[in-house]
Amino acid sequence: MNKPETTRGLINLANQNKLLYRISNTLLKIDDLEKILVKAVEETLNATTALTVSVALFQEQKQSLVIKILRRRNGKTKPNQMKEFKLGEGLAGVAGKTREIVQAIDVQKSRDFVGNKKDKNFGIIAVPMLFQNELIGVLNLSTDMERQINRQEKEFLTVLATMIAGSVKNSQLYTKMSNQILNLSTLFGISSVINRQQTQMTIQKIVEAVPALFEAEKAHLLIHNSDKNSLQTYASSNIEKNQKLLEKELTLDQKSFSAKVFFSQKPSYLNNTIKNKTILPKYRKIFGIKNQLSVPVMASDRCIGVLHIINRKCGAFNNDDLKLSSVVALRIGNKIENSRLMKKAETEWDLFSNIIENVNEGVLVIDNKDNVKVWNKFLAKTFGIEGKDIVGHSGFELAKKIGTADLYWKILMSEKKRANVF
Known about the structure:
Blueprint: H1 16-28, H2 33-47, E1 52-59, E2 64-72, E3 84-86, H3 90-98, E4 102-104, E5 123-131, E6 134-143, H4 151-189, H5 199-213, E7 218-225, E8 230-237, H6 243-246, E9 250-251, H7 257-264, E10 268-270, H8 281-287, E11 291-299, E12 302-311, H9 319-358, E13 363-366, E14 372-375, H10 377-383, H11 395-401, H12 405-413, E15 419-421
Antiparallel strand pairs: 1-2, 1-6, 2-3, 4-5, 5-6, 7-8, 7-12, 8-9, 10-11, 11-12, 13-14, 13-15
Helix pairs in contact: 1-2, 1-4, 2-4, 4-5, 5-9, 11-12
């Protein structure tokens, strides 16, 4: 890359608006994070007299800045120069912590510079990359300037860093959305065919898919036990090693966050559980809960449990996550309710079948496709035809066997209901 002509040090102030417009157009066309970073350093080198440009992205969980790309004007990049800084450490760390531009004209004389100062006689400018007051990273430029940057240069660098921050944030959101769509398809692709034996296994699979959907670490599903007025573990993800704690019941008379969500039937999240007394200390310590999103599990307009999503990342959850978690919890509730209704139906059908089978009258049921569905013992004994030999066959075939084909045909033609008691 050729060093651009400048009239006042760092940038060509006369063309700064054109430079920013071109850079903005270039970055807005890219979604891939790696490509955005490459273009960001290339455009910064083209627009300034910087010798080297690097971008460090903020890692919220570690509270640190990691240099993701470094490019020299001659195009060379040394892998061993990729570094990580804690907030407040090094010029980049100070810029990230104070959210202000930090400049060292000569790193030899800088107290904040971190690294080997031997044979280094250049300066560094660290510019915080902010998007809607959120720290995204720091843009670093090494220069041979022998003066402090002026107000116009600061404004240019601030706008440039904001553009890069916006592009990076959009890319991160795009990636998150793509991952959520993929994880949602996985979650909703889990078998919807439920019977009594499959229910808990299916719910377990759904709960195991939950953390990835929210970029979280753990998930914990508690179901209400009405007899004991407590919540009991039904399924979990990544917390199985705490089995003894999972086996304990959470009574709803405690002033816990679980009880609050259960009784209010409203989802809620806490992005700093240390200061919140509703998260029971033993659970917070053992599960490493720093942030928690909890959502009521609803079935037929009643709350049957609570789903907890646990994250160690600071500020991990937002209102969009509340909406998404409600969809997930509703699916879980529907699965459990469907299983309950199926169990009830099976019990009622067993009772009904037993009555039909043993009643001292003949019971015949034929569906609208002309298939025999019920042929009880009384009919089997009366006509000498076992149910296994006729159930599933056509009603007309049965009528021929018992000598009522003509009558059956008249019934069909008159479009009467094909269900008779003999």
